[in-house]
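Q: Can I see a sequence and its folded structure?
A: Here is a first one.
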Amino acid sequence: MKNNNSNKKKRLFPNQGKKTIFSAGFFLTLFFICFFLYRPAFVTFLDQKLYDVMHLSLTDRGTPQPVIVDINDQSLEAYGQWPWSRDLLARLCAIIIQGSPRAVGMDILLSEPDRTSIRLALSALKKRSGISIPIVSPSDVLLDNDLSLTQVLRQGPFIMAYKFLGQETTHLPPGLLPLDTTLISPDPETDLFKWFPPWKGLLTALPQFLQAAQGNGFVNALSDSDGIIRRTPFIMGYKGKFYPSLSLATLMLAMDANKVSLESSAAGLTSVSIKNLTIPLSSQGHLLLHFRKSTSPFITLSANDLLQGKIDPGILKNRIVFMGTSASGLGDHHSTPLQQYFFGVGIHATAMDNILNQNFLSRPSWAMGMEWVLVLLTGLLSTLMLVYLNPWPCTLTLAGVTTLLWFMELLFLQKMQIFISVTYPFITLFVNFSLLSVIRFRMEEKRMIRRTRDMVTAQNLTLIGITSLAATRDKETGMHIRRTAIFVKILAKRLRLSPGFKDRLDDHTIEVMFKSAPMHDIGKVGVPDAVLLKPGKLTASEFKEIQKHTEHGWLAIEEAEKISGIYGDASFLKVSKEIIRYHHEKWDGSGYNQGLKGEEIPLSARIMAVADVYDALTSKRVYKDSFDHSKARNIIVEGRGSHFDPDVVDAFLEELEQFKEIAIQMADE
């Protein structure tokens, strides 16, 4: 029971490596939370693009409500360049009035007097040339186009446009109407005006137009940092008062409302209510727009067709109308999440359509808090994935969490019409996962390096152990195996300089040969002492017994590999087996025990053959005295092409001095 509890604790509590990953993931998650507070530009850009993709999934609700009277390219072609004379605008407005619309928002800034008026033209002529031309007219309307438009504006439900400016202008013009508001706030002392831009002036219609119309509203557009309009200012704060947008002022006229209720929180505005209609707003008073997928979502009437009587104005009955221009040269065009070419008056129409069809999109004040919670959860989840899961489950979990976040955003947007950004959780999930994967990979790499080092050490100990076993049978073997190993390395390095061996003798292969060379005579442990240690010349049968040592050694390694379950090229003893079994083979095929010749003999064994014979010749044995270096050299040269590989002999000749020095320095005691 104690052992089971102990094992359970080990599974529940991570080891030091897992603790390191968990700590790194925790601090990375905290970093992301702090980092996203600053809303960096590149993340904001990604967030905007993700919102646009999500916008494509939205479904259009209800029937398009507003009607647009468009001063389009055909209208300008028919009636001349812009701006039109005010008497022509007066005719157009009079026709619209005949259709009995509920309200008409004029997305046209009429800030300058009409200089085509006869009175202004004559006044300008007199000022320039001193010529005065008396005119007798039955009506001042014929002489003043602005007066003509003023009279028409008084007759209909028109809302005039103005624009907030960043530069100083004169005082507020007469007729500019602020909102009559009731403020609903948990803290009456909250300064809501700090959430609005610090406007310094206004560009308005002429005071007479403002006073003649039924109301007025601003037409400031609001594009995001990438130039795309996703929301529109709906309420603006200016010099201690709230002002309506053209859309809001037009809606209030259509609803016969003269007062609104503003609801706010510590984070700014939250909504505006008109009678029983509540419209969600951002803290800065913006309305998030839900664009319809159609390229021409609203009923659009050409001003030219209305003026020429081609369209019955009765189509406008009880409708909310916006008058504006889509003419190419006037520049009132914007990009939206769904379209690159969307004219300005369509923005006001979209806002009105969203309100009338209750097709709101909103981003409540708690949305950011929820995103931070998602950042925290995805950060911790990605950390736990790397701590406890293997690669494949980890990858599948990552894909599952990504899909879940995506569908969560779709659910909020489609069902609840609330935009919760998952850009920040996405970034946290993937960046945290990637960085922690690098840390985990590095830790695994270090662990594998340690394991490999331990395995190499074990292999070396195995080789040394086996070699030492052979040395216990023959005292003369000790220094012999050390010298021959060095000779093998010297020959292999020299051979590598030849083109034919460069690719076959890399550092790893040479090192394996060096470590395997001492094992070449381990098969002698299977040779009887009477034969192995005999001081005199061996008989034919005794020599055959000695020859068996290559097979004894090879079979011993083969059996060891079978027991360990390692075979062929996967075994680190592959080169050892080659050297053990074939180092007595001869280049002409007269060696033992397999009778191989030439390239059939493994390269490691051909190198070993030269090293072994040279050391045997220059060392004293129980059955012979040592030969001097020159005689040993001559014997090896005589065996070039018969006993030995010619290339190996050539390498030997180039390294003669090194062989001689090692033979002297490491001579048998």
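Q: Show me another, different protein.
A: A second, unrelated one:
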Amino acid sequence: MGLIFRMQSFFLMMVFGLTQGYLPIVGYNFGHNNPERMKKTILIGNAAALSFGVIGFAVFQLFPEVIIKLFNSDPKLLNIGVSALKRVSLSYFFMVLNIIGVATFQAVGKGMPSFAITFLRQAVFLVPGMYILGEIFGLDAVWYSFPIAELTAFIIMSTWLMASIKDSMSKMRETV
């Protein structure tokens, strides 16, 4: 688990770097009632985040053994780690979009949805999902809790964000 989180953090650094540039641009355009530029920034930000998700997925699908051997070459760790990295990396497509969605909520001044989505992903879906899948199906299934948690959070986040952005943009257009 520790190895997966370490490897994931290298990959997520790119996404968090993206959000550091994305967030003020969306916020600036939101504050200046520029809905078209805000929409364009959101689309480009999501496309960039998704490309990072594809890169992370590809690296962890194609080279899991090489990555694990950088830390430890124990055969038992390799056996568990290879399947774990491949299963966890299925979540990257949704994880990066969840991260950029949370940043979008922050950019438009909606901290509570941002907090709620982050809390749901980790505390409500991931940790209990790991426990439940582990108890019912064993260690091999625990890793599927990552994509399940991210997909579930993505569905909630995207629905909430779409409604919120649509409302914000219509208010912005009214004031222009």
